[in-house]
Design a protein that fits this description.
Blueprint (H helix, E strand, L loop, with lengths): L1 H10 L2 H21 L6 E4 L2 E8 L13 H23 L5 H23 L3 E9 L2 E2 L5 H27 L3 H5 L1
C-alpha cells in the first residue's frame, strides 16, 4: 500500500518534467524561427543568442561520426528516461529534493530526445562567453539536466548521510 501511495506521489513531480519539455521545445522553436544560423545576437557583454545544431552529444562529442550517433544517443536517452522514471517512482515522498532533481533531468533528456529523433540534431542557442573564450552553446534542456545533476550531487554529498542517520537501522527493521 505504501508503494502505491509513493508511486502516485512520484507522478505528481512529472509536471516539472512536462514544464521543462514545453519550455525547451518552445524556446528551440522560437530560436529556429527567429535566429539566423551561427549569427550571434548580443544580449549582454557575456551572453549571445546563437542558433547552432549539435549532431553529437555534450560539447558536440561525436558530432562528425557520420549519422549513427543519432540513434545511439537516442537509445541512451530512452534507456536513461526509463531508469529515471523508475528511480523517481521508488524515491520516498519525503525526499522532494531528489524528486525535483530526477524530474529536471528527465525533462531535459526528453526535450533533447525529441530533437534528436525529429531533426537528427539538438537545437542549441544560448551562448556564454568572456573575452575570446566561448562556452559551448546549449539550451533549456541542457540547463535542466545540469541543474538536476547538481541537485543529485548535493544530495549525494550532503543529504544521503543525514537520511541514514535519521532512518531506523536495517537490524531494527527486521525485528
Amino acid at each position: 500500500m505504501t508503494d502505491v501511495n509513493n508511486s502516485t506521489s512520484a507522478l505528481r513531480w512529472l509536471w516539472i518534467t512536462v514544464l521543462v519539455i514545453l519550455l525547451d521545445l518552445g524556446t528551440k522553436y522560437w530560436a529556429d524561427a527567429a535566429l539566423i544560423y551561427a549569427q550571434p545576437v548580443p544580449i549582454l557583454p557575456f551572453f549571445d543568442l546563437t542558433l547552432l545544431y549539435n549532431y553529437g552529444a555534450a560539447f558536440s562529442f561525436l558530432a562528425g561520426a557520420g549519422g549513427w550517433q543519432r540513434w545511439f544517443f537516442a537509445g541512451i536517452a530512452i534507456g536513461m528516461s526509463v531508469f529515471l522514471l523508475v528511480w523517481l517512482k521508488r524515491t520516498p515522498a519525503q525526499e522532494w529534493w531528489m524528486r525535483l532533481a530526477l524530474a529536471l533531468v528527465l525533462g531535459g533528456a526528453l526535450g533533447n530526445l525529441y530533437d534528436r529523433i525529429i531533426h537528427g540534431y539538438v537545437v542549441d542557442f544560448i551562448s556564454l562567453h568572456y573575452g575570446g573564450w566561448y562556452f559551448p552553446a546549449f539550451n533549456i534542456a541542457d540547463t535542466a539536466i545540469t541543474l538536476g545533476a547538481v541537485l543529485l550531487i548535493i544530495d549525494m554529498l550532503f543529504l544521503a548521510e543525514r537520511r541514514k542517520l535519521l532512518s531506523p537501522s536495517s537490524e531494527e527493521d527486521l525485528k
